[in-house]
Design goal:
By secondary structure, the protein is an alpha/beta fold. It is built from ten helices and twelve strands. The strands form two sheets. It has a seven-stranded mixed β-sheet, with helices on both faces. Helix 2 links the parallel strand 2 and strand 3. About 4% of the residues have low confidence.
């Protein structure tokens, strides 16, 4: 179908939260956009950096618990573009990683609306990385799986194959669970039920790249208690696998010589490190 609009929709990834991690293209589009429709996971610093003259709307889950229905967002994107406006649909992380960017792209294409996808740094990679945990490592992990933590592992019709995921971890792979704070006990139980060893290293990285970033480490046997003790809250990324152990060997130099003056690290409860990025 040929396009008939004068405006363009840009499906843009905002990265994990730190405005410095926006891509150059994302920064340019935010500066030039007529309208920005953003999700709640977009960092406050990113939203605050948008020029004053731009119409900015939060279409994610808001403080009052309200959420803009996806169908309404889809229609808004079409309407704004057909009115001749350039629209940035801004999402935390990458627009195609559990962010419904694919659905929005299909809707725009079905209505003949021109769009562009601007990748962002997904928290699935960023959160472990900034905590000193490489998602893959030549000596520890050559495979990586990223799943949503919202899925109930006890459902008979679960879309996640916990047996296959457990086999991946057992074989030395890395499992990254996004948005899984509330279901941490269920997810840990599912891995244990499918044979993953209780001593398997686990980390949770909360609010990665933001000033109040924290990392909680443990094992499948201890991580639920440690997360409770540390009162871990969303957004947080869970990492399961041997790569978590790399953190112990690099944490004392994490940040690099240029950044160490701006990063202070303090010990919290056992297995918890608070990283204050100034």
């Amino acid at each position: 179908m040929s396009t008939t609009t004068t405006g363009t929709v840009y499906l843009v990834g905002a990265g994990p939260g730190d405005p410095d991690l926006l891509t150059v293209k994302a920064r340019r589009l935010l500066d030039e956009a007529d309208v920005v429709l953003h999700d709640s996971l977009v960092g406050d610093g990113v939203v605050e950096s948008i020029p004053d003259g731009t119409r900015v709307e939060n279409v994610g889950k808001r403080a009052d618990g309200e959420r803009t229905p996806q169908a309404e967002i889809n229609d808004r994107l079409v309407q704004e573009a057909r009115a001749g406006r350039d629209v940035v649909r801004l999402k935390g992380g990458d627009p195609t990683i559990f962010a419904r960017g694919g659905e929005e792209a299909e809707h725009l294409a079905s209505h003949g609306v021109a769009f562009d996808v601007v990748p962002g740094i997904t928290s699935a990679i960023a959160a472990p990385g900034v905590a000193g945990i490489p998602a893959t490592h030549r000596d520890h992990a050559s495979t990586l799986a990223v799943v949503t933590g919202h899925e109930d592992p006890t459902k008979a019709d679960s879309a996640l194959d916990w047996g296959a995921l457990s086999s991946l971890v057992d074989a030395g792979g890395t499992l990254v669970i996004l948005m899984g704070v509330g279901r941490l006990p269920d997810n840990v139980a599912a891995l244990r039920e499918h044979g993953v060893a209780p001593e398997t290293p686990v980390a949770m990285v909360e609010r990665a790249t933001l000033p109040d970033e924290r990392a909680v480490t443990g094992t499948l046997d201890t991580i639920v208690d440690r997360a409770d003790e540390a009162s871990v809250e969303p957004p947080a990324v869970t990492v399961v696998g041997q790569v978590v152990g790399v953190r112990e060997t690099v944490a004392h130099c994490l940040g690099g010589s240029d950044a160490l003056a701006d990063v202070s690290v303090s010990a919290g409860p056992e297995g918890v490190v608070e990283v204050n990025r100034q």
